């Protein structure tokens, strides 16, 4: 590995972590593990790594690629922040790429809005299309993706990318709904739930027995919600509301090694215990789209918030973080 990650932010402004002040509001009688101080040191500072984006999304820590890869969706490009702190264009045009993850071999998996497909970046720089059609029609606009230990890809397919086309006219959906899909290692694509209006972020619990999915279509008068499902043999059951968000709707999701759930929301990163108890809030200037754990020890939390990519050191590792 190159030199340690703190070099990321030399000369970069640091901002106080205002969310710590909300600790007593969220969990005055909570167990120690259910407080924000179990996640962040009181002296922690949020650092700005990048502030030249339009809508930053899909962060993923990718050591084989040199650092943090993320999508600048509306600028139709993907960026890389190297461990030394330098930001550079990673792929342009990106087909309005959104969510990203890594497979077990460290290859980058990306959801593309413009092309309605999920692709894999090969070591020679070529792209392999993994999924772009279902039941005879084009997918809507794959949004976020995770890879299970068995190699299956799970991804959401809302209609944002075709409803809000960056160029040209929006196109009608060719699907009967907005689904969550599972792409099996053998190549078959199946709907695992059709219960969402606009499914968005998704993440597994550390043992992969639970899948969390964001519902990002805020029904009138109802708070945005994160739902949980039991997972068994590639199927989902026991749907329930895991948590609701007080501001906006939940977007990207991540889970730490102790099972806490993190969500990008309308006012920053919200955190819950594995049992669904509120743990705390890391505020951002405007909505937070997505988050990722990474860094050399997996304890650095990267936050995509509008035009910015932020980072803060934590006390916990991300679940299944590649370090």
Features:
323 residues; mainly beta; Neuraminidase; five-stranded antiparallel sheet; four-stranded antiparallel sheet; 2 helices; 27 strands; 2% helix
Describe the structure.
The radius of gyration is 18 Å and the shape is globular. Mean pLDDT is 89; it is low at 1-28. Strands 1-2-27-26-25 form a five-stranded antiparallel β-sheet, with no helix packed on it. The protein has a four-stranded antiparallel β-sheet with strand order 3-4-5-6, with no helix packed on it. Strand 5 and strand 6 form a beta hairpin. The termini are close together. With 323 residues, it is mainly beta. It has helices at residues 23-26, 160-163; strands at 14-16, 45-50, 56-62, 67-72, 77-82, 87-91, 97-102, 108-112, 117-121, 127-131, 133-134, 137-138, 145-147, 153-156, 180-183, 189-193, 199-204, 210-215, 224-232, 235-245, 253-255, 261-265, 268-272, 278-283, 290-294, 300-305, 308-313.
- Beta-strand percentage range: 35-45%
Count of strand segments: 27
Strand order of the largest sheet: 1-2-27-26-25
Which architecture per CATH? Answer: 6 Propeller
Straight-line distance between termini = 10 Å
The poorly predicted ranges are 1-28
- Secondary structure category: mainly beta
- In CATH, the homologous superfamily goes by the name TolB, C-terminal domain
């Amino acid at each position: 590995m190159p030199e340690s990650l703190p070099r990321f932010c030399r000369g970069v402004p640091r901002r106080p972590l205002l969310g710590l002040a909300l600790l007593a509001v969220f969990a005055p009688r909570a167990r120690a593990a259910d407080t924000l101080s179990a996640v962040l040191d009181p002296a922690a500072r949020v650092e700005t790594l990048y502030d030249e984006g339009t809508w930053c999304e899909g962060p993923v820590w990718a050591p084989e690629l040199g650092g943090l890869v993320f999508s600048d969706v509306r600028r139709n490009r993907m960026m890389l922040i190297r461990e030394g702190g330098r930001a550079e264009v990673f792929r342009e045009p990106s087909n309005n790429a959104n969510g990203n993850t890594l497979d077990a071999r460290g290859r980058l998996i990306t959801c593309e809005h413009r092309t309605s497909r999920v692709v894999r970046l090969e070591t020679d720089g070529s792209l392999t299309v993994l999924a772009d059609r279902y039941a005879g029609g084009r997918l809507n606009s794959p949004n976020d993706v995770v890879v299970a230990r068995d190699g299956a890809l799970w991804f959401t397919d809302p209609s944002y990318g075709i409803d809000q086309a960056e160029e040209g006219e929006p196109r009608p959906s060719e699907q009967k709904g907005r689904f969550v899909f599972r792409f099996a290692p053998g190549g078959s694509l199946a709907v695992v739930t059709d219960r969402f209006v606009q499914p968005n972020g998704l993440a597994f619990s550390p043992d992969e027995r639970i899948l969390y999915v964001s519902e990002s279509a805020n029904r009138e008068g109802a708070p945005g919600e994160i739902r949980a499902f039991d997972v068994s043999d590639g199927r989902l059951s026991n749907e329930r509301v895991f948590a609701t968000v007080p501001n906006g709707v939940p977007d990207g999701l991540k889970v730490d090694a102790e099972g806490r759930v993190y969500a990008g929301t309308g006012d920053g990163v919200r955190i819950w215990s594995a049992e669904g108890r509120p743990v705390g809030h890391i505020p951002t200037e405007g909505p937070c789209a997505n988050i990722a754990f990474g860094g050399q020890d997996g304890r650095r939390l990267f936050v995509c918030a509008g035009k910015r990519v932020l980072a803060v050191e934590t006390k916990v590792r991300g679940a299944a973080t590649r370090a």
